Amino acid sequence: MDMLIGGKHISSEDVEEVKNPYNDEVIDTIPIAHLQTADLAIQEANNAKKSLQDMSAFKVSNKLFNVVDKLKEKRHQFAELLTLEVGKPINESLVELDRSIETLRLAAEEAKRIYGESVPLDAGLNGKGFFAFTQKVPLGVVAAITPFNYPLNLTIHKIAPAIACKNTVIIKPPTEAPLTVMKFAELLDKEFPDGVVNTVTGYGSEVGDYLVSSPDVDKISFTGSVTTGMMISQKAGMKKVTLELGGNDPMVVLNDADIDKAVKGVINGAFLNAGQVCMGVKRIIVEEDISKEFAQMLVRETEKLVMGNPMDEKTTLGTLISQKAAIQVEQTVNNAVHLGARILTGGKRDGAFYEATVIDDVTPDMDLVVRETFGPVAPIIHVTNIDEAIEVANDTEYGLQAGVFTNDYSNAMRCAQEIEAGTVFINKQSTFRTDNMPFGGFKNSGVGKEGIKYAVEEMTKTKLIGLNLR
Ligand code: NAP
Q1: Same domain, 145 and 266
Q2: Can you tell me which atom of ligand 1 is nearest the CA of 150?
Q3: Is 209 close to ligand 1, i.e. is its CB under 6 Å away?
Q4: Is residue 440 assigned to a domain?
Q5: Do 96 and 76 contact (CB within 8 A), yes or no?
Q6: Is residue 362 a part of any domain in this protein?
Q7: Distance between Cα 228 and ligand 1 center (Å)
Q8: Does 289 lie in the same domain as 225?
Q9: Which of 61, 79, 97, 107 has the fewest CB atoms below 10 angstroms from its CB?
Q10: Owning domain of residue 159
């Protein structure tokens, strides 16, 4: 595939193969851009600002709705490509497509709701005789840098609100899974003037870094790891930055919980997308009295998962993004076992596959739960009471989302208030998001919020216009 810059297809002498992690076959190649090409994209995005800003909100909204219709028509085609490049089961890819369509639809609606407010200047000492109002104006050029795990929906979470509030965009997709995003950019490009949508493929450390450092890019909207996020925040200078980073989300299961519900929450939360989910359940903190029953039920349900060809509709556990990623998960689990943890089921690797693994007797100091483990692993940590549960839940640099399972109202409220995370769900695992809700972590899990309305806030600036009526 080619890049799309200023409405033109652009290639490069250097290319990278995009491989299917299931069978290692090459699906396609992408150009590896260097700094000159990134610079061209920045110029084109700046040149296109006026054409987009001159468009009415009505027209921008309609155009986004047209893209919604096109994506709906191509839902299956996109889902298949997504499964090929990421290795996620086809049914999960279809869900990502449905969410992508929803995210885009929310942005098309939001394009008509970008309001300012009137400001009573006469409430201030010298303000009598003035009338003033604010307008939300676009920032200019937004660069969207996105990860491999939900490449399409997470990219749409950035570029759709950016365009809804009339920013032009440059997309830097993940090198391991760029294809659905590049195809989607082509759909968008057909609706909007040249240069409104641009893609730059190439290595994050080179072209990503260049976009972050450029004074001619007005905003970086980044989703990815904490390490990259920290580098970006240091290099971005005066531009606005939204960082949606990693998570190490706790699931707290108290003695009075509905165990069946909590177990189902882990199956979805720890094993979805082979555990490669920022808001995945990564630490299961269980009160001692119920821990044995909980672990037995969890093993039973985990063993029902079907690992296999991601294109097969019966498959519920696909591959990780690469064999390298699977080896890393294998090593982290093995280290925990070496330190005393016990594998109850799973624990084996085959190429890029890693079995759905339940591991008990994990202690909070093991690397498996200190760092974000990006794989299908459900680590169980035992605690003796709610105080210890909250303490363990908060004993992390991360704070994305959290889930608490209890049927006691006051325990639920206490956990909700004391757990340090951007979202706390009661009787639902952390692995839940609707695309309109404010989403974004505390602590090292990020800066700023997404969820269309909230992303628009972060992609506009407020201008005050004052009229002297005297
Ligand atoms: P990553 O390694 O940080 O890469 C993310 C993106 O950043 C890729 O496009 C990458 O390009 C680019 N990049 C790498 N180095 C860069 C640099 N120096 N400057 C600018 N861009 C750079 O993350 P990942 O492994 O793809 O994704 C997994 C991580 O994302 C996990 O930690 C996960 O929790 C997090 N995540 C967070 C959320 C959220 O909403 N909070 C959602 C999903 C995932 P290349 O591909 O070319 O290296």
Answers
A1: no
A2: 43
A3: yes
A4: no
A5: no
A6: yes
A7: 6
A8: no
A9: 61
A10: 3-245+445-468
Is 231 near ligand 1, meaning CB less than 6 Å away? yes
Q: How far apart (Å, rounded) are the C-alpha atoms in residues 5 and 333?
A: 43
Question: Is residue 245 in contact with ligand 1, taking CB distance under 6 Å?
Answer: yes
Residues 375 and 236 in one domain: no
* Domain shared by 286 and 264, yes or no: yes
Closest ligand 1 atom to residue 280 Cα is: 34
pLDDT tens for each residue of 269-301: 999 999 999 999 999 999 999 999 999 999 999
Question: How many A from CA of 50 to the centre of ligand 1?
Answer: 31
Note whether residue 366 is domain-resident.
Answer: yes
Going from the Cα of 174 to the center of ligand 1, the distance in angstroms, rounded, reads: 7
- Are 185 and 79 contacting, i.e. CB atoms less than 8 angstroms apart? no
Give, using CA atoms, the residue closest to atom 14 of ligand 1.
Answer: 204
Most ligand 1 atoms within 8 A of CB, residue of 225, 243, 322, 329 to mutate = 225
Per-residue confidence (pLDDT) for residue 463, from 0 to 100: 98
For residue 411, what are the CA distances in angstroms to 248, 249, 256, 392, 405? 22, 19, 10, 16, 9
- Same domain as 341, residue 197: no
Distance of alpha carbon 331 from its chain centroid, rounded?
Answer: 25
How many whole angstroms separate alpha carbon 215 and alpha carbon 88?
Answer: 37
Distance 96 CA to ligand 1 centre (A): 18
Number of structural domains in the chain: 2
**Residue 439, in any domain of the structure:** no
Do 293 and 219 share a structural domain?
A: no
- Least Cα distance to 152 among 225, 92, 78 occurs for 78
The reported pLDDT for the residue numbered 36 is: 97
428 and 449 share one domain: no
**Residue 182 pLDDT:** 98
* pLDDT-flagged residues of the chain (< 50): none
Q: Which residues are catalytic?
A: 244, 278
Same domain, yes or no, for 88 and 49?
yes
**Domain containing 143 — which CATH number?**
3.40.605.10
CATH number, residue 384: 3.40.309.10
Closest to 144 in 3D by CA, of 218, 215, 85: 218
Residue whose CA is closest, atom 22 of ligand 1?
204
Give the residue carrying structure tokens 């942005």: 107
